[in-house]
Amino acid sequence: MSRRWQISRRTFLKGVGASLALPYLEIMGGSAKAGAVATPPTRLACIFQPNGVFPKAWDVTGAGSQFELSPILQPLKGLKDQLTIISNLDNVGRGHVQMTGAFLTGNTIGGGKNAVSLDQRVAQAIGHETLFPSIVLGTEPPRQGAAGRDPISFANTVSWSSETTRISPEINPRVAFDRMFRSQSGPEAVEKAARRKSVVDLVLEDAKSLQRKASHHDKNKIGEYLDSVRSVEVRIDNTLNPPKRSWTPPTTPELVRPDAGIPQDRSAHLKMMMDLLVLSFWTDTTRVGTLMTAHGFSRQNFAFLDGVTSDHHGMSHHKNQDQAVGEYTKVSQWYIHQLAYFLDRMSSIDEGNGSLLDNSTVLYGSSMKDGNGHVKDNLPIVLAGRGGGAIKPGRHIVCEPHTPLANLHLTIAQNYGVEADHFNHGSTGTISQLG
Q1: Whole-angstrom Cα distance, residue 8 to residue 6?
Q2: What's the pLDDT band for 36 if we cut at 50, 70, 90?
Q3: Max CA pair span of the chain
């Protein structure tokens, strides 16, 4: 190829209100294996599935590299060499609310308090180079009410930035797209950011003054508000003072702005949010993303699946009845089909030294093993990707019985440079078999 046709790997496509880095192209010149591209960063995706699984349909047979995928996991057979199945990890807490809250914190909610979640701990460590330290996406609206003594609203998310501050998932695809990809540069954007910065400063000053006078409950609510304002403040600062980057994506995807509103088709909605998460990694908009495939107390109807008649929460309390077990398993397989779609998308993106999936850790699972009895032992957990070389996939790791889920949190956090010898005091060590 003549060099006069070559373009820089740092070439960006610019459109109305958006600017994107390009996929690796031959026209960019050089070989992806020639070492010309800086080492890509390692991303973290945390994907939550509600209501558990039917254990006999989930559990894999065999250990190490000699394992066979179970019926629920069959949609991942083409990705087996990128998977790490982990058995014998236990959650803490009781019921949907507490166990959802513990999925990324390893901590039992008590007195309205939790702990900082894995995604946010990692974002604090590696999020300084990107526009967004992390993004949190979902598909189901928040819910109110109570489940026993616990507010159902605590199961709206698995992401906590402090012991009292939850991060609400964005469920509208267009809103999520606009936040991430509408123009963040240029004179107009900088001028707009400067105006907003002055407003944010005033809001913070007034809110802090109010917080000093408020009740304990209101202080927590104001704290949540302040945290959301601070996230806006970070985006404004990144616009006015773009962070220095050690790596620039060698390729760029095509950006298609989603239609307004929330898709009625559940498969289309979830895939759209997965596509946005892939785009956020591909363009280095963020390196940490969390996706709630549904609410932690989800009652979504899956009648669009052949033979399914009840809602997900209802069928999870199956009482070992064949009809309910069959529906429960079919819904779990549907979720794994969506995961396979996400992983295929990631594995198709060449970053020079491997795929986006090779340069990521994807944590997928549910906060309970079986919804029938809210079983919290031996959770359904899958890791995908190589974590930039920190993980050796293609194996089934069988931990000692009753190993805390927080041990996995600690292992992943340390892989991302988090300096800690425990994870929210819930861990007893790390999972050394991962590397």
Answers
A1: 7
A2: very low
A3: 70
Cβ atoms 358, 386 nearer than 8 A: yes
CB 169 within 8 A of CB 295: no
Rounded to the nearest integer, the mean pLDDT of the chain is 85
Band of pLDDT at residue 253, cut at 50, 70 and 90:
confident
SS3 of 24-72: the string is: CCHHHCCCCCCCCCCCCCCEEEEEECCCECCHHHHCCEEEECEEECCCC
Exposed/middle/buried for 195, CB within 10 Å: 0-12, 13-18, 19+? Answer: exposed
Tell me what pLDDT residue 242 has.
64
Tokens of 313: 């929460």
CATH T-level topology, domain 20-26+38-178+249-434: Alkaline Phosphatase, subunit A (3.40.720)
Q: Give the per-residue pLDDT at 317.
A: 96
* Position 287 pLDDT exceeds 80: yes
> Would you list the domain boundaries of the chain?
20-26+38-178+249-434, 186-241
Are 394 and 67 spatial neighbours (Cβ–Cβ below 8 Å)? no
Instruction: Could you list the beta-strand ranges (E) of 275-359.
Output: 288-292
Contact 92, 426 (CB under 8 A): yes
For the four alpha carbons of 67, 118, 362 and 125, in that order, the dihedral sign comes to: negative
Where are the extended beta strands (E) located within 274-422?
288-292, 360-365, 381-384, 395-404
37 pLDDT higher than 60: no
Can you give the length of the chain in residues?
A: 435
Whether the per-residue pLDDT at 314 is higher than 50: the answer is yes
What is the pTM assigned to this prediction? 0.82
Rounded Cα distance between 224 and 209, Å, is 15
- Give the position of tokens 């089934």: 396
Q: What does DSSP say about strands 288-292 and 43-48: parallel, antiparallel, or unpaired?
A: parallel
User: d(Cα 84, Cα 137) in Å, to the nearest integer?
Assistant: 24
